[in-house]
Design brief:
Elements lengths: L13 H10 L2 H9 L7 E6 L5 E4 L5 H14 L4 E5 L12 E5 L16 E4 L5 H13 L2 E5 L16 E4 L2 H8 L6 E4 L3 H7 L13 E3 L9 H15 L2 E3 L7 H12 L18 E3 L3 H9 L3 E3 L6 H10 L19 H13 L5 H9 L3
Parallel strand pairs: 2-3, 2-5, 5-6, 6-7, 7-8, 9-10, 9-11, 11-12
Antiparallel strand pairs: 1-3, 1-4
């Protein structure tokens, strides 16, 4: 695990990345082998008669909604389609018609998507993104990938020939290192940009810290993530906030054991915008989100591996014990609007991202 942060460990080979990821979750792999489940049908939403853009959203998480749904919203009433594991009612504005697809990995492109010229996704490592990417290849459509979270060396590679909408120039260089077939455009992070609008909110800087859990992550060993969380919470009186993905049996057992030992678990799941206390984690995006909101935020992990130290440096994350993490740079223009502007050029349509941003802010 001593990989440096000069780039991705698997810059091109998605198969190798998947094998590594599966090896990091042996119980999940064993369960799938013993009791395989059939592929879940995907859902396709249509807006307009001849969609020119297909957006693949693999999970309605705050990061993917910010990176994928908000640029779609900024595009306005452009004919488009959305591919997702479930209906996203309430998350997409406008008149969308949802249809369940019995779509396996080899499913042919639906006739109604024949006019698609661009695919926007978070990558091709999950089912919706993988199918959309294959359809894009069949259609000759451009592959557009929106970065939705912070990047470790163990992030999956992006599709061949893709354009990456990156959070920063450093992230752009990180992903494209070793790739001569991809390009990157720095647009910033929609999630962090939106968090910056809440900076006037009052915060209790002396309150009990909140430690953001990451037991689900494959980048660090589970025992290491658990040790860091336990050590920090016991030494500071912090409250442990599980990641939404910490729903597996081992994580639930760990949570219960901690509770029995006196450690407080916050299962409320309130969005970061409502947190009003210091925030700490090993390498969660929530650290930068909290800093953008004006909250004191740090990182903590005893004896961090080299890649994690370099990760902290790349994102300006401050280790616990010193000055808190500085708020990330916030451009005047909204990243979702910038992404929409790039997409509109590729589709040959006109979008007014500046007007959309002013409308979102309620200014004339």
């Amino acid at each position: 695990m001593g990989v440096t942060s000069s780039g991705l460990r698997y810059p091109r080979d998605l198969g190798a990345w998947r094998r590594w990821h599966e090896a990091r979750h042996p119980l999940r792999r064993l369960r799938a082998a013993v009791r395989p489940s059939p592929p879940r049908p995907l859902w396709l939403a249509m807006r307009g008669e001849a969609p020119r853009l297909l957006v693949a959203i693999d999970a309605p998480t705050p990061t993917q909604i910010a990176a994928l749904a908000r640029p779609l919203e900024a595009l306005g009433p452009v004919d488009a389609a959305v591919l997702a594991p479930n209906r996203l009612d309430g998350l997409l504005s406008g008149g969308w018609q949802w249809t369940a697809l019995a779509a396996g990995p080899e499913a042919a492109v639906p006739d109604r998507l024949g006019a698609v010229r661009a695919i926007l996704s978070a990558g091709h490592h999950l089912p919706a993104g993988a199918l959309a990417d294959r359809w894009g290849a069949d259609l000759g459509a451009e592959r557009l990938v929106a970065q939705h979270g912070l990047l470790t060396p163990y992030a999956p590679p992006i599709p061949h020939g893709a354009t990456l909408f990156a959070f920063s120039d450093a992230d752009a260089e990180f992903v494209t290192n070793g790739r001569d077939d991809v390009v990157a455009v720095c647009t910033g992070s929609q999630l962090l940009w939106a968090a910056g609008s809440a900076r006037a909110r009052a915060a209790d800087a002396q309150g009990r810290p909140v430690y953001l859990g990451q037991l689900h992550g494959a980048e660090l060993p589970r025992w290491g993530a658990a040790r860091a969380a336990r050590e920090f919470c016991r030494s500071t009186g912090a409250v442990y906030r599980p990641h939404p993905a910490e729903a597996d049996l081992l994580s639930r057992i760990q949570h219960r054991a901690w509770e029995l030992s006196g450690l407080e678990i916050d299962r409320g799941g309130a969005p970061m915008s409502r947190v009003d206390r210091p925030v700490v984690s090993a390498f969660s995006t929530g650290v930068l989100e909290a800093a953008a909101c004006g909250l004191p935020a740090w990182v903590f992990y005893p004896n961090p591996p080299r890649w994690l130290r370099e990760f902290w440096e790349r994102y300006g994350m401050a280790p616990w014990g010193g000055e808190p993490t500085r708020p990330p740079f916030r451009d005047e223009l909204e990243p979702a609007a910038l992404i929409a502007e790039h997409i509109s050029r590729r589709l040959g349509c006109e979008v007014r991202p500046h007007a959309w941003r002013r409308a979102q802010e309620g200014t004339p």
